[in-house]
Amino acid sequence: MISVAEVLVRPEIAETRFVCNVDKCKGACCTFESKYGAPLKREEIGKIDGLLDVIEKYLPLNNIEVIESKGFYEEIDGELLIRSVENKECVFVYYEDDIARCGIEKAYNNDKTDFKKPISCHLFPIRISDFGGDVLRFEKIDECKPALEKGVEENITIAEFCEEPLQRYFGKQWYSELKKEIGK
Is the same domain home to 12 and 53? Predict the structure, then answer.
């Protein structure tokens, strides 16, 4: 394990090559077959709730109906999770050229908000586990095989690929310390 300011980082984050390739995976991380969606931070709920009118402009009618009837998140065993549509796609998914994309991020990219997307989504394929403190681990899924191949081709590690969300969550100084620890 790599330790940076009381955050443990599993070595595969520094070693595994990874660059998303949505042309091949089709946005699989947003459409996992599961009744549970991506984790949310409590402070993200208010931000998203205040942006629903903007975000819904990018979403399919079915997803809007789910949000309006059931809400965009649920709490299960004390964990906050984005709601899934029919145990599959995230309620914030819309499709563009057969690729699942995020309506929250679309609003951000169109300068309609300063909130890019939930940090758990932004950090993916990194997941944060709590074992008496944050532990960063690589969530390996079969659908990300094209990302592993592209990472090897471009020689970019998960830590490098996730530089922006890691800095967003832990800060630039923390990320700089991570780079020193992993020798990059």
Answer: no
SS3 labels along the chain: CEEECCEEECCHHHHCECCCCHHHHCCHHHCCCCCCCCECCHHHHHHHHHHHHHHHHHCCHHHHHHHHHHCCEEEECCEEEECEECCCEECCEEEECCEEEEHHHHHHHCCCCCCCCCHHHHHCCEEEEECCCEEEEECCCHHHHHHHHHHHHHCCEHHHHCHHHHHHHHCHHHHHHHHHHHCC
Per-residue pLDDT for the chain (184 aa), expressed as one digit of tens each?
Answer: 899 999 999 999 999 999 999 999 999 999 988 877 899 999 999 999 999 999 999 999 999 999 999 999 999 998 999 999 988 899 999 999 999 999 999 999 999 999 999 999 999 999 998 887 899 999 998 999 999 999 999 999 999 999 999 999 999 999 999 999 988 5
* Domains identified in the chain, total number: 2
For residue 163, the enclosing domain spans 1-18+125-184
Domain boundary among 84, 110, 136: 110
75 and 138 inside one domain: no
Q: Are residues 73 and 46 in the same domain?
A: yes
